[in-house]
Amino acid sequence: MRIKRIICFACFFLLLGTCASEIVTVDSGPQIPNRPNILWIVAEDLSPIIPPFGDFTVETPNLTRLAAEGVRYSNVFSTSGVCAPSRATIALGTYQNRVGAQHMRTMRPSSAAPFPGQVTAYEAVPPPQMKMHSQYFREAGYYTSNNAKEDYQFRKPVTAWDESSNAAHWRNRAPGQPFFSIFNLGITHESQVWMQQENSLLVPEDLEVPVPPYLPDTEVSLRDIRQVYSNIVAMDRQVGEILQQLEEDELLDNTIVFFYSDHGGPLPRQKRLLYDSGINLPMIIRFPDGWRGRGSG
After folding, report:
1. pTM, entire model
2. Domain-located, residue 291
3. Which domain holds residue 276?
4. I need a labelling partner for 40 at 20 to 30 A (CA). Which of 89, 151, 251, 271 fits?
């Protein structure tokens, strides 16, 4: 029973402010193993502008397959428009305001420091009785891995992860041990809109892209929007690689797969703001038995 409570806890804080618009009837729920594996695939700075949520500007075959085999949650909102406060909520299962994590942390020199040369540093300090999601899983015997971004708005406890690094993977667990593994995909992060422009686009340079009504229809806007979609194509390939590894290990049928983003998109009037464009995000959950999946057709 304890592991069921932990899974419910994990689902609860992800679904804060969420309405699963596809769920119209009550049934017995998915049939899952007693100790299922939990896999989180987290894209950064992503609004629901992918085919499973009605935007067909580019193809995302891996996310489209995941959505066909799982449940799409089309009315999900993060509790913040920027990553660290949102990630604090996800890690602790409580609103960031409750633990003083609502302001974006900084550990770098600031021109706003009260004295020249002084570093104005800020980070939250959660109450000592609070635990991270991964700690609950570890106490239940799960192997926990995080690859690799942390940025929780607070310093993680030493008991947070079995492994948190660029090499962290469920494959490093003991034989037969259930796992809770997170893979953070940074290719869709705001910084990659300009950093990836030195590389070749994964979409045609003349691709017709939708311009949100709050952005100017200029060449600069079109260039950045195309880069956003190019990064989505790259992210989808990374999702495919992770799912392929799961299938290679014959773990797909006893793993609950979550795909979601930390908040909305990376463009102006999106990231850092509390409009729908800044906090509405995509989420897909695939259950081992394909509960509520629509099939691959």
Report:
1. 0.88
2. no
3. 2-19+35-109+118-286
4. 271
